């Protein structure tokens, strides 16, 4: 079961949100049943750099923390990091994320990250996602949409 | 305070869904309901929550709900908490600030 502690970052801007899965949320998409946790995955190069990474840099803070917590809990094979929006570019270079969720897509983001979501830019209802170069617009994105994009990012990361 | 019936009505959809899930999972002893801004007033009458979290507080909220949070109104960086009869404006709200409003487990 979740505990509230990890949602309270102290001095660090970046913190891993902890593990374990939520249960009983029937309306949300199930994670794909292709998690490489078996010995056959030893030869997969993605294992060398660890689990797929999602970097969260959207505003406002409470929502950033909340979405990070939900993704982390519902997709426990993914590592979720949160940073302040102004640390996005440096964090992309540092963490080499497989997916980014932010409020304003930067050139660094577009050039370096295969999967990203520009969530409610300019506080509007429209969000933009890019999955391996394919751009999509959502008039009002839902939490299940975000989870599906996380699944896509994980698939792409593991396929490489 | 310790809210036991919480109505979540903030915009936008994924934010509202996220808050509701987090509250349900981290505070399983608390009842959490979701609604849109448009349906907020009607749901207050029907559900009688003791805490409302919304993006724009209405006159119905002010008159009929004991505790409320106006979270990031018009996407501003501050939020207003009205808890136990006290107004408080808070910058840079954290998720933990909202979790603290929930009742402790019985």
Plain-language structure description:
The complex is a heterodimer of chains A (160) and B (106). Chain A has 160 residues and is of the alpha/beta class. Chain A has a domain of 108 residues: Rossmann fold. Helices cover 31% and strands 17% of the residues of chain A. Chain A has five helices and six strands. Chain A has a six-stranded mixed β-sheet, sandwiched between helices. In chain A, strand 3, helix 4 and strand 4 form a beta-alpha-beta unit. Chain A is globular and about 35 Å long. The N terminus of chain A is likely disordered. With 106 residues, chain B is α/β, with parallel strands linked by helices. In chain B, a hairpin with a 7-residue loop joins strand 4 and strand 5. The mean pLDDT of chain B is 95. In chain B, 31% of the residues lie in helices and 26% in strands. A six-stranded mixed β-sheet of chain B has the order 2-1-3-4-5-6, sandwiched between helices. At the A-B interface, helix 2 and helix 5 of A face helix 1 and helix 4 of B.
Write the layout of secondary structure elements.
The complex is a heterodimer of chains A (160) and B (106).
Chain A: H1 45-48, E1 53-57, H2 61-74, E2 79-82, H3 88-95, E3 99-102, H4 107-112, E4 115-118, E5 127-131, E6 134-138, H5 143-159
Parallel strand pairs in A: 1-2, 1-3, 3-4
Antiparallel strand pairs in A: 4-5, 5-6
Chain B: E1 5-9, H1 13-26, E2 31-34, H2 40-47, E3 51-54, H3 59-64, E4 68-70, E5 78-83, E6 86-91, H4 95-99
Parallel strand pairs in B: 1-2, 1-3, 3-4
Antiparallel strand pairs in B: 4-5, 5-6
Order of helices and strands of chain A: HEHEHEHEEEH
**Spatial order of strands in the largest sheet of chain A:** 2-1-3-4-5-6
Biggest sheet strand line-up of chain B: 2-1-3-4-5-6
- Percent helix of chain A, as a range, is 25-40%
What CATH architecture label of the domain at 53-160 in chain A applies?
3-Layer(aba) Sandwich
Radius of gyration of chain B, in angstroms, nearest whole number: 12 Å
Measure the end-to-end span of chain B: 14 Å
What is the number of beta strands of chain A? 6
Strand content of chain A: 15-25%
Identify the most extensive interface between protein chains.
A-B, 30 and 23 residues
What kind of assembly state do the chains in view correspond to? heterodimer
Uncertain ranges of chain B: none
Strand content of chain B: 25-35%
In whole angstroms, the N-to-C terminal distance of chain A is 33 Å
Query: Which blocks of ≥5 consecutive residues of chain A have pLDDT under 50?
Result: 1-24, 37-48
How many separate helices of chain A? 5
Query: What structural category do the secondary elements of chain A indicate?
Result: alpha/beta
Shape of chain A: globular
Calculate the mean pLDDT score of chain B and round it: 95
Give the number of helices of chain B. Answer: 4
Largest sheet of chain B: 6 strands, mixed
């Amino acid at each position: 079961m979740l505990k509230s502690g990890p949602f309270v970052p102290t001095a660090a801007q970046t913190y891993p949100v902890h593990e374990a899965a939520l249960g009983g949320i029937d309306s949300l998409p199930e994670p794909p049943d292709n998690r490489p946790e078996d010995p056959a995955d030893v030869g997969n190069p993605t294992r060398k750099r660890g689990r797929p990474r999602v970097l969260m840099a959207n505003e406002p803070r409470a929502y950033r923390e909340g979405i990070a917590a939900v993704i982390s809990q519902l997709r426990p094979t993914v590592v979720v990091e949160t940073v302040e929006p102004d640390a996005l570019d440096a964090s992309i270079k540092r963490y080499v994320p497989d997916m980014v969720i932010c409020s304003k897509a930067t050139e660094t983001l577009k050039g370096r990250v295969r999967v990203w979501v520009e969530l409610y830019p300019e506080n509007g209802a429209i969000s933009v996602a890019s999955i391996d170069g394919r751009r999509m617009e959502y008039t009002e994105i839902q939490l299940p949409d975000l989870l599906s994009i996380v699944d896509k990012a994980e698939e792409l990361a593991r396929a490489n | 305070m310790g809210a036991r019936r919480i109505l979540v009505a903030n915009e936008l959809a994924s934010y509202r869904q996220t808050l509701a899930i987090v509250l349900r999972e981290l505070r399983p002893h608390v009842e959490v309901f979701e609604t849109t801004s448009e349906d907020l007033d009607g749901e207050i009458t029907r559900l009688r929550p003791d805490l409302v979290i919304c993006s724009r507080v209405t006159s119905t909220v002010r008159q009929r709900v004991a505790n409320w949070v106006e979270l990031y109104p018009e996407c501003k960086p501050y939020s207003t908490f009205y808890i136990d009869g006290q107004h408080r404006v808070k910058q840079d709200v954290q998720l933990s600030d909202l979790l603290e409003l929930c009742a402790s487990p019985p």
